[in-house]
Design brief:
Shape: globular
Number of strands: 17
Largest sheet: 8 strands, parallel
Distance between the termini: 58 Å
CATH class of the largest domain: Alpha Beta
């Protein structure tokens, strides 16, 4: 691991719009964006010739306490309920060190790929030690505070007592979360969790309507939080993508009016949804195009990585962006915005990127254009957090020359 290295200049970077620029930095803030070559040399500059410079990615929906548990659990592949059951069985065997170790490894993997801000949901467990995961994640947040911004959400199941939600908030978790659509009475559980958030003045990020059919709580959610000043988000919202157009658009209008940030999670929902269909299998994704066209606050996250809810995942936000293009029919620019600037906005973070006055949060990826770096997702990257270089990856490749090419280069040149 490299030590954080303060920078004052990013030289010769290609922006997504094609401009090649020098970016001057003072502390954690961008102070100038100049045509390439115009900035005076400094002793703390990074040459980004041949790199595309993006706003650092942010993940607004992760589960660090579950991450990288697939190999230990070896769950059957399947739908949401089978994943929940596999995870609950495993939690009886976990230790705080196990949770912290997997979470730490996952944060550093995401940071290496370019994510400098993460929002993680944290389970309140059943049994004798409900705050085991909460303690582990608070510890990891403190340990890695100089490398990444980590925000923690209480993930309270329908059976979680209010006192345990309050205790998790007292421990240092930031937002109230849960999954009301899984309750026997979704409306009652929704109102219970929002009442806790209102009483505490906490932000909210709820798992919402994560199914292809069943309860629709998003409209009621929007009506309750209308006029709230704290940040409010809804994750998944799969059911929204299956509603008839008129009903869908009416719910989206309520969401926009209440300024709820909607967080899509393509890789996990594509994996979990549709197992009970044997033909014309529907794909689990919220109404991404309609939300964007309506002006909703919109972001996307990786959600689960290598656990019972998703056996795969590369810890790379460019993977999420690629899936938004392929499965959600977004443009490349829209997809990258959803995992960078849009994600930061939904998380309530300051504006970042190559704009004067913005925070110096950057991901530089070797490539020639935005489409190039999303398509290839090259491993050659530099990651900058708070104006400091916090991760660098350099890859060397060697490919054997084809015999025909070798013979061409070694054949004698014929005289004319």
């Amino acid at each position: 691991m490299i030590l954080p290295l303060p920078l004052t200049l990013l030289r010769g970077a290609t922006l997504p719009d094609g401009r090649v620029v020098d970016v001057e930095i003072e502390g954690d803030t961008v102070t100038a964006v100049l045509p390439a070559g115009d900035a005076a040399p400094t002793s703390a500059e990074l040459d980004l010739t041949g790199f595309v410079l993006l706003t650092a990615t942010a993940d607004p929906h992760s589960h660090l306490d579950k991450a990288r548990s697939w190999d230990a659990i070896r769950p059957p592949m399947g739908d949401l309920l089978s994943a929940i059951n596999s995870w609950r069985d495993y939690t009886a065997t976990m230790t705080e060190a196990d949770v912290a170790g997997r979470a730490r490894a996952q944060v550093l993997a995401m940071l290496r790929q370019g994510t400098t801000a993460i929002r993680s949901h944290v389970d309140v467990l059943r049994g004798a030690d409900p705050l085991l995961c909460a303690r582990a994640l608070v510890s990891v947040r403190h340990e890695l505070a100089d490398l990444v911004d980590l925000e923690l959400v209480v993930l309270a199941g329908p059976e979680t007592p209010d006192v345990h939600v309050e205790a998790a908030l007292d421990l240092g978790l930031d937002l109230v979360g849960g999954a009301p659509h899984l309750a026997d009475d979704p409306s009652a559980d929704l109102r219970r969790l929002l009442a806790i958030a209102e009483r505490r003045g906490s932000g909210v990020d709820l798992h919402t309507d994560e199914s292809l059919d069943g309860a629709v709580t998003l409209g009621e959610f929007a009506a309750i939080v209308r006029g709230w000043t704290q940040n409010v988000s809804a994750g998944h919202c799969v059911r929204l993508g299956t509603l008839p157009a008129a009903e869908r658009d009416a719910v989206i209008a309520e969401v926009v009016a209440s300024r709820i940030g909607i967080i899509a999670n393509p890789i996990t929902n594509l994996y979990l949804q549709g197992w009970d269909h044997d033909s014309s299998v529907p794909r689990g994704l919220t109404a991404v195009r309609e939300l964007l066209d309506a002006g909703a606050r919109f972001a996307a996250g990786a959600d689960n990585v290598r656990d019972p809810f998703n056996p795969l995942g590369r810890s790379d936000a460019l993977e999420t962006a690629m899936l938004l293009v392929a499965a959600g029919h977004l443009t490349i620019d829209e997809a990258v915005t959803a995992v960078s600037d849009g994600a930061r906005e939904v998380m309530g973070l300051p504006v970042a990127g190559a704009t004067v006055g913005a925070k110096a949060e950057f991901l530089a990826v070797r490539g020639t254009s935005l489409a190039d770096v999303v398509a290839d997702a090259p491993a050659d990257r530099h990651v900058i957090h708070a104006g400091r270089l916090v991760a660098t990856t350099t890859v060397t490749s060697r490919v054997a020359a084809a015999a025909s090419l070798v013979s061409q280069t070694t054949a004698p040149v014929s005289e004319r």
